[in-house]
Fold each of these.
Amino acid sequence: MNILYLITRAEQGGAQTKVLALAKHGLAQGHRVRIGIGESGWLSDQAIAAGVPTVVFRHLKRTWSPFSIRPFLQELRAELERQPADILHMHSSNTLFATRLRNCMGNDRPKAIATVCGLSLMHPGWTGSRIKKFVFNAITKRMWARCDHVIFVCEWDRQFALSKKYATEENSSVVYNGLPAEMPYLAQRDAKEKLNLLSADSDFVVGTVARLDYQKDIDLFIDMADTLRAERMRFRVVGAGPDHERLTKKIRQLGLSDRVEIIDRARDAFRLMTGFDVFVLTSRYEGFPWTLLEAAQARVPIVSMAVAGCPEIITDGETGRLVHDRAPQSLAKAVRAVRDNPEQSAAAAERARAAVRQKFSQTVLLNGTYSIYKQLLPDG
């Protein structure tokens, strides 16, 4: 098979990590594989180091401006004329515009597959311009219809799309995100040092890893910390994003600067999870969050909002604790329960790790994706 992966951004993230793993697997299986990206960065560096050819499409941008779409399609046409593809696998919403070109290529056109990493503006938890949401949904629905197959990362997303007639039973499936068997977590003491926690070694550490933006709702995490200010706890937010300055100001205004700290780290943030006593996910909406898998793999007890695909990872009371009420008091209650039941929490964390290794491994992800390729190309 000749496979071209398309993705907009090159920064390290879940989608980029997945594309890299898929490309490396294809190369190892003897397929011709390359990655098309909208910029140079972490992904292109890692791909080149692994021997995976990369192509930078200068006009593949995180924008739906027609002034970028047409030049991108011209670049893509030139690349496909230079080296045709059997599979065109798209991993970000802007890459879906490739279906406009692909459907004009006649009998030699590649099979088009879209991986939906999250519903984005489609998700009922997204709030913003109704006009923007309507346009996004209409265009995305049309482009998904042009695909030969749509892969969702969780059953919740797929069922939502089916209910809205954005996809069909026949042309869609679920392939869960998956982690390698071994992850380069830091030793606990090293993680605590990076988290500025060595001076508070006896305190219970409540942490999260997230992009600092509306979706991840770090305000709820901070409000939870405020609720727990009388407890012997420390709170750490590891991540970067547009809300950094505002959230830092909020922490200061609440008088929590001695308890709550934002660790500005975008790359390999998961490595610090071993410094947490509990991982808390506060997102307003999600697809199938990598951070829950990473926390489980690190044997860190988990408290998560019960949004979208999260209950497909965490079984409440069995492999972690799910919170349905978006109130800081509810999260605080779950965090206290983890702290006050250490043996039970440790056992749940072990079961969560076992579930990740069995159901959400990188091997399952790779085999599931390539089996779809083979179904679309039985002679490939």
Amino acid sequence: MRTSRQRSLLMAFACTLLACISLSAQETEISIKYKPREQNLIIDIPLTLAEITAINMVGNVSWRLWGPDSEVAYFTLDTIRRNLDYRSSWSWESGRGGDTFLTEQLCHPFAGAYYFASARSNNFSFYPSIFSAYLGSLQWETFAETGFPSFNDNISATSSGIIIGEILHRLFLELDKLGTAGRIGATFVSPTDRVTAALRRYGPEGGPLKIHSASLALGFSWVNARFFETGEDTVSWSNPSAFFDFDLVYGNPFTAHSKTPFDQFDLNASFTISPFPLIHTLTFITNGYLASWLLADDEINQASNGITIHNDLHSTDRGTFLDLNNGRDNLGFYAVSMDYSVKWRRALNRSFELSMKTHLGFSPWANLTYNGGEDKDDLNLFSFGGNFKLFLELQHIKEDSGIKNGQSLTLALCFYSTWDWPGNPGFDNNSYFLYSNISYSFPLSSRFSLYMADSFHFLHVRPIHDAAAIFPDITRWYNNAQVGIKISFI
């Protein structure tokens, strides 16, 4: 599946910015009488299938109008008949002539998210809705394009789609409780939820807001990067840029105790752009509890632990704006992980509290970009491995009009080590990816703070076995120093 750069930008930017704006809206009373959300499989199943089909039809038409290779969208009965032969037509894409990194790890996951949200909005619970994400991707790969279907597209759309889709569905329900601005934001966050609500006359759900905290930081930054390969010229730059960082916590992470998936999740999305030359970086980090148990809850300590599922995307590219392109000027890493997690907060005294979130686990599905071979082909390398993630925050508690907005010092550290997937169509390799971020905010008012941060990305790919004789190691790092204003919505 290939989509235009405009759709990708709108998807990433609108979901973040409009969600932030709508959080500031006030809750209003709803006088219209809505139908209750109750399972009725006679309606739920056909409507979910119809919505999945409609999503793919809209995607196919937009591809024909704006796609970079629109001819691939003109499917025929012959291509459908060929693609239905699972054994002979389905294959792995190595990156040579296949989808680019952002198509694989941004467009496919968001398509899977809309399939998943269709089922969730039609009264299916989390686990049955997984089949909806798989079926939607299967339908697209088989019916909506002339290219050969790929296993990796189907895996990415399903595995990431269930994570992003559940987040979008839950955010829709929260924003829909608010006023007009909130409902507009909810529509952009999850259009499939809005369609279902309109068709079935579902209204905003009652109850308190479940979003624990939300903030947006924006301002100016300075980008430094250096990409180099053995025996090749280095690629480096040092440029001014602008940034947007969005953080959201759903549910109290330190008192989570539930067997309902994503009753608590954390989300961070960041976008940086530099105009001369055009450089853009997209970071998307999230995790949600599949099941959680309370360890402690008193005046000094609050702690929960459990099993979390993660979706992480890091992409830096220089050139055409969101070109969806791999290349020598690209740094890309993506992983879906299953971890054991502990989230703990401790009151140090009346003025300070320390919080820690740790994650350790297995990444069964990872993808990274490689360009360093003699023929300079761009490759998507599919991998598996392990990861460790640590998030620390030291918070100075300052009560101001009932809102906590004191000084805050945070540290994030994410480390991944991966190996090539068995049967990988690329080559044997070991890879290492590191992401770190340190930030400090100083309150100017109850909602506004001065914000300073520095983030660092590091990727190293080491070909092994026969590949080592042809392909060199590559090492790429990127640093972003930021200063701006942080707005706390909740």
